[in-house]
Amino acid sequence: MDKLSVRLSEKDIVPWLLEGDVSIQYQVHRDLLGVEKPELQKRIATEGWGAQFLRFRKPEGHWGRGFYQVKWISSHYSLLDLKHLNISPNIPEIKESILKIAHNHKSEDGGINPHRDYRENPDSDLCINGMFLNYACFFRIDEGMLKSVVDCIIQHQMPDGGFNCRINRSGAVHSSLHTTISVLEGLREYKKNGYIYRLEELEKIAAESREFILMHRFYKSDKTGEVIHKKFTMLSYPFPPCFSF
């Protein structure tokens, strides 16, 4: 029988997952079995996928060719992947890389800017701001470094309750699911890790953003009721493309 057609029973799924990378093992124990295993989390940095990511970090503190080049192997997405692997949040090299981004890639609006030439592309990107907040909070970056990012996110919330990364570039008038989810993930990590700057405002924004998503039944157009894009119905990684609707 083709391996792709094999269906695992419920009792087989956990043992199968526990045969995977140490990062998967750690999250299975924590999230499915309810057992925290810090010794497994510690191993993520020294074996498997986590160790591979760390080996590709360059001496100057970046992955790829910098913060956002080449896109999927850049520092930005490598750091987000490391967060998703649930590597230890206390690795100095990772904190150093995030601080480099915070120091060197902020626009005048206080947000994170992926572009090399800020004069030609002066505006930050809300998707990136949400993702940056997500991993920066996970790795416990000092709150002072995050305040301008929080200010930028609050400033760019749209009237429908969500967010769209094109609002400060091409004048979007309707929120994007992708951007809104990216921001929500960042806000969740911000609160979870004890940050308090403008927290009450962020909690209100998070509630409004969740309502925006529910209004669209997670992945459908509020105008036609149709699925916005078939990729929204697929389990995929790293991320679905950014679709505005």
Please sum up the structure shown:
This protein has 245 residues and is an all-alpha fold.
**How many helical elements?**
10
| Main sheet summary | none
Measured by DSSP, the beta-strand proportion falls in: under 5%
The total of beta strands comes to 0
Element string (H = helix, E = strand): HHHHHHHHHH
Distance between the termini: 42 Å
Radius of gyration: 19 Å
The low-confidence parts are 240-245
Shape: globular
What are the defining features of this structure?
single chain, 245 residues, mainly alpha, 0% strand, globular, disordered C terminus, Terpenoid_cyclase/PrenylTrfase, Prenyltransferase
What does this structure look like?
By secondary structure, the protein is mainly alpha-helical. The chain has 10 helices and no strands. The chain has a domain at 105-233. The protein is 45% helix and 0% strand. Helix 5 (75-84) crosses helix 7 (126-138) and helix 9 (177-192) runs antiparallel to helix 10. It is globular, with a radius of gyration of 19 Å. The chain starts with 9 loop residues before the first helix and ends in a 30-residue tail after the last helix.
